[in-house]
Write a structure and sequence with these properties.
Blueprint: E1 7-12, H1 33-40, E2 43-46, H2 48-51, H3 56-65, E3 71-75, E4 89-92, H4 94-100, E5 101-103, H5 110-122, E6 127-131, H6 136-149
Organism: Sulfuriferula multivorans
InterPro entries: UPF0759_sf
Protein name: DUF72 domain-containing protein
Length: 151
Amino acid sequence: MQNNQLVLVGGVTWTYSAWHGSFYPDDLPDDWVLSYYNTQFQAVFLPRIIWQSVSESLWLEWLNDTQDGFYFVLESAGEAVGIPTSERVLRASPVWINEHVWWLDDAPDLRALAQRITRQVNAGEPLFVFSRSGDLGLMQQVNQLKQVMGY
């Protein structure tokens, strides 16, 4: 990972139905949803059930629809067939997740998160902060925390 962002926020997918009409504008075309998501968040965690069924052409579309600093973090699975070779697509083993992921829904304490961010940054390692439930309020609070901390 060669990105100067050390704290990256996102959800488990970008297609939460509750976001339509609240986070996503009502008139946003379906094929612009990922691009819009990428204006607010820096990463997405994809469970293997989702990414294993994605075609090569759709991967290329997703990579083209997102900015260079945006990451796709993939839940680890056996053999990774069909994943594009890109530094923006990361395979996340359980060990990697333990070292690089903060599950926001499990630990929404922003003070504890700030301490973890400090430890992670001091080690020079990125921290991905993901919400499984797509809690926009918490995700936006983490983006604000990042900004206050200078990341």
